[in-house]
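Standup notes
- HV: blocked on the assembly model, inputs below
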Amino acid sequence: MYPRAERRFIRTNRITIIVLFLVIAAGGIVRSTGSGMGCPDWPKCFNRVIPPTDITQLPEGYEQQYIDGRAKKNQRFAKIVEFFGYPDMADKIRHDESILEHESFNAAKTWTEYINRLVGVAAGFALLFSAVFSFTYLKTKPSIVGWSVLNVFVVVVQAWLGSIVVSTNLMPWIITVHMLLALLIVGISIYTFYLATTSRNKSILSGQSVGPLKWLAILALTLTVVQVVFGTEVRETIDHLNDQGVERADWVAQLGQPYFIHRVLAYTSLGLSILLFFLVKNKFSSLTLQSKYAWIVIVLVGIQMMSGIILARFNVPAFAQTTHLVVASLFFGAQYYLMLLMTKLKR
Ligand code: HEM
């Protein structure tokens, strides 16, 4: 049904989406194992393409060398933050001593962060190939080219932001922006996939009006994005409690308002997903993609709720942290694709 060049684009685009979720999974493992500072520099790790496995491989006084490098980078970043109208934040970046704190060498953490970077590089190449192959649509569907090329630029910004995450010693709000940008990149890739597949296979979309369903899907998706922001805020509070030496068993009790809002939004999101599921099942036959994705969304929200409850009841175990982060992004991706599938076929 699709010409060869289009098939190649669709295949590459599909692989790109899978690799992007792997990057998010790797990022989640880095966060839950506290390996974010495993490599004190960027893009190389301890100034090497392949990082060391033992502290004896590092030169004497290496700590100060990396602290100086990060300090210089932060001065440049503070200027950018100031330029965008946030002088207080710029001041904090310039003067907060904790930003330059050094973490002692730990081979496991270094290699966890290093593998995370390798998966990131693979995602960069996958996006680049997608952009190159998208040129087959230059005449028939130029928006696919536009979005695919834009995504390469967004991933470059994301990589730069990744370097800032390191140089500011994992400053909380930057991690939130990093997470939202990751969802944006996934979203653009899903969108180009949707445009490419529906450009020839019209049977994917429904001929009837799906108006209110589409609005409900948009509402559910918006709620998920807000929920992710509150989730990262809860996570930042946990990181802060950890830094202050609070016992793991006492974390959840001290989480405060963002955690309360996070739970309220979670149950709202669950309710909306269930409502959407029944409405989609009512409108579309069970063999359609819409029905399939309504199922996927309901399963993912179920796993997400369960991993959230495990986090809350069992003192935030690391495996549940990673699951919670990865499933949140899969949930976002499935909801977004379902929302796109709610588009009425244009005749
Ligand atoms: C639709 C449902 C939900 C979504 C989309 C969601 C999403 C998220 C996200 C994106 C994070 C940040 C993870 C990170 O930055 O590493 C997070 C953290 C968290 N969420 Fe949820 N969440 C949901 C439901 C719940 C529920 C029901 C609970 C508890 C009853 C919960 C408890 C937590 C806790 C304790 C954290 C901090 C975990 C950590 O330190 O890694 N979440 N959530």
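- HV (later): unblocked. The pocket of protoporphyrin IX containing FE is lined by residues 31, 224, 227-228, 231-232, 234-235, 238, 262-263, 266, 269, 301, 304-305, 308-309, 311-312, 316, 321, 324-325, 328, 331 (CB under 6 Å). The chain has two domains: 1-200, 204-347.
- Next: hand off to the docking folks.
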